[in-house]
Design brief:
The structure is a homodimer. Chain A is an alpha/beta fold. Chain A contains 11 helices and 17 strands. In chain A, strand 8, helix 8 and strand 9 form a beta-alpha-beta unit.
């Protein structure tokens, strides 16, 4: 790379390579210690080169949400994919079948309609699809409830041609202490336990559930520590962001991804405006209310208090008031996944030098 | 275009061409009636072909926020640009100078530092730059306060080589009734009056202020109706979105942009999950708290109550409960500008047929 870090036009996202590699290694080590497979959710970075680093460190493959996203990773040679998303449209089902012919692929179902569509596509395509049943872990999104609903659907999947039911999965995120003062560890263990229990119920009616897949960055380790969980799927752990730090799931000094921005206006003693707004950082809110839209890496008490499309308004703490028009700063966004999705490139630095610029190849691959 | 609307993989954004053209014509007619220039903010659509339609209907040019965005429009032959943003970095200032050589360009300043940087770049580049002074209209973003601050900066700009001060501009948005039960009309008039007053003050000390530029979609018409305002800069008016409708600035039946999505899960009687999440609609919140992240075009009482990266959770009103897995729906996003910025293409339909698919050429041009 010829470009010097300080010459790159702002705003842009950059990664501290050493920190990222440490984060990748630490999660891989944690998974080995817990004897669970690690299948990172690659929607966080959307960069096949990074998926290769995760796999080299011990990940079994990657998790993805959309068919088009999975195609990008398959094209780059990543050949063990969990498409943790309900695919129901005929044209997209055809693409799933093509993916299944060239990769190890796991699909997701949470409804009879969806299972029947997947089965028809598999039959027509002459392939057998491995299927994971999504269990609703109480977040009111997708998934079937454990118990009668799960029995019925699992039995239906098992009966349908072209499908092979292999496991259950779920996502619970981490909703703070909304449901009664639980710690992150207790919250994560409850996620693992709910999935293990759902799997046991299905085995009791004779279904061969071998995979029990849990976790997100805040819950991966506690969920993975539950006996019977076989796989964890954290996404954000390699980069971190303000929300993951606020959740207590990573230390601030391990955050590896930043937005680089320039001060364009200094309208008041305690206010600087930078050229990174919601089209750079995303509008995703703070995990704890009232904490703005990210913070200054060099002074975490200085927050992005206001956010417009192309303006980030920093409320400057005492230490940051020396900032002048033209100064460049690094900002930790609230939510790294949605920030990355806004960018075409990710600059990777080592010792303050640009080591590589990755194309965010699956950016915008939402279909 | 060969592709049939119902065959396009979801999620995607589409525009109802007839409605969009009506909206473009209506704002152009309003500006003519008020005898003000119309310079739409093209960050809303980021599509040069659409800018051409706006100009053909009577717009004098377009407004843009970033240099890279302006370059895309200049490359497409749009040659009258207001870069309503403080450009302060040396490399970006060089790009501004190159733009000034090939287009009619207006620049923005709100600080002495910024003005001096702009002046040096203009002098070094051998061009004269037309400059608009940004007035702070109370939203605590960029801009100088009217009065002493504005006098000082305007005088400095007038004295600096390479710069020609031609006007003032501001942005106030519409913050509901936060500041004391004002109507949208009163709020917009106050915006226009503040700018006209700031311009009059500067003329009183001998500065040749000829342009007074106001407005956003909710305030453009009331601000433009203030005697002395010469230009309005609405952006969202051609598409509309849930927030603009909630502001009373457009009728729901004039909304021209929608996200097309597919129901992927039907976990409960009153819940459907679609494949359009925050990476399709953006996380921008509702103008009025508690109204979710958009609504179903066919049944506005059905809202996107929950939003994840790739999931939109519809809380189904009675009329929408017939929705099944695989059904396709149209959703009105909260904020059209940030939604468009997530997409590479914009499908334009006429009589339910795909008429053209535009490339969102300035998508992601944030530097």
């Amino acid at each position: 790379m010829g470009a010097r870090f300080d010459d790159l036009a702002t705003p842009f996202l950059y990664v501290d390579l050493d920190r990222m590699k440490r984060n990748i290694d630490a999660m891989a080590a944690a998974a080995r210690e817990l004897s669970v497979q690690l299948r990172p959710h690659a929607k966080t970075h959307k960069v096949p080169e990074i998926a290769r680093l995760q796999i080299a460190a011990g990940a079994s493959g990657v998790t993805l949400a959309k068919v088009s996203e999975a195609e990008v990773f398959a094209d780059a040679g990543i050949d063990d994919l969990f498409l943790a998303y309900q695919i129901v449209s005929p044209a997209q089902l055809e693409r799933v079948i093509r993916l299944a012919r060239r990769t190890r692929l796991r699909c997701a179902v949470d409804s009879r309609d969806g299972a029947e569509r997947l089965s028809r596509a598999a039959k027509d395509g002459g392939v057998e699809l491995q299927v994971m049943l999504e269990i609703d872990l109480g977040i009111e999104r997708t998934g079937v409830r454990a118990g009668v609903e799960a029995f019925d659907l699992a039995q239906r999947v098992a009966d349908l041609p072209g499908l092979r039911l292999i496991g259950v999965y779920g996502f619970r995120g981490f909703r703070a202490f909304a449901d009664g003062a639980e710690s992150r560890e207790a919250w994560g263990r409850a996620e693992g336990e709910a999935l293990v229990s759902a799997a046991a119920d299905l085995r009791a009616i004779g279904l061969p559930i071998v995979e029990v897949s849990a976790g997100s960055t805040p819950t991966a380790v506690p969920a993975g520590s539950v006996r019977g969980v076989t796989e964890i799927r954290p996404g954000q752990y390699l980069f971190g962001c303000a929300n993951v730090v606020a959740q207590g799931a990573m230390r601030a000094e391990d955050v590896a991804l930043f937005a680089r921005a320039t001060v364009i206006s200094r309208p008041a003693e305690d206010r600087a405006v930078v050229d990174a707004g919601s089209k750079t950082l995303s509008t995703d809110g703070p995990w704890e209310p009232g904490r703005g839209f990210g913070y200054l890496a060099s002074d975490p008490s200085t927050r992005v208090a206001g956010l417009w499309e192309e303006h980030g308004v920093l409320r400057l703490a005492e230490n940051a008031r020396r900032l002048r028009v033209g100064d460049r700063v690094s900002i930790v966004p609230n939510h790294v996944c949605t920030a990355v999705n806004l960018h075409d490139r990710l600059v990777a630095i080592h010792d303050d030098r640009v080591e590589v610029v990755w194309t965010i190849a699956a950016r915008g691959r939402i279909e």
